[in-house]
Amino acid sequence: MEIQLLWWHWMVLGMLLMLAEIFVPSFTIFWFGLAGLVVAVLLWLAPELAISWQVVIWALASIGFTIAWFRFFKPTMTDRTKAGLSREAVVGEIGQVIRDPQDGRRGVVRFSLPLLGDDEWEFVTTEELKVGDRVVVVDVSGNTLVVAKKGN
């Protein structure tokens, strides 16, 4: 009994493998599915392609796509945001003092855009500040910003 695969068999296999990526988030099955689509196109163009060559092309394309993914594309997709890096996200931001620090009480600075989910933050400083001064964040100490007067 001879097995004959048609181009649409490979198309269905490729799509099923790509859909399997939804349930098995490894991002490698996707490339096997993409290779199946490549074989489907080749078989559509050359319907006399032997099944052994189909499997070899599918395996080589799967390996090629997987290597290309891990070697070239995945490194460029690394997270370059500042998420999870609170200090790096706020240092250098400029705000305006809305409550000056007095009698051991921390001051409050407001930013035009929320920093880490809030637009008002308590701060400490070694300088004398008053309401309305513009400050720049120079560091983070726990949940408190360390600021300096802008222009210093």
TrEMBL record:
Pfam families: NfeD (PF01957). It is a multi-pass membrane protein. The keyword Transmembrane applies. The keyword Transmembrane applies. It is found in: Membrane. SUPFAM superfamilies: NfeD domain-like. It comes from the Bacteria. The chain crosses the membrane at residues 6-24, 29-46, 52-72. Residues 88-149 form the NfeD-like C-terminal domain. Its main location: membrane. InterPro entries: Membrane_assoc_protease (IPR052165), NA-bd_OB-fold (IPR012340), NfeD-like_C (IPR002810). Keywords: Membrane, Transmembrane, Transmembrane helix. This is Membrane protein. It comes from Desulfuromonas versatilis.
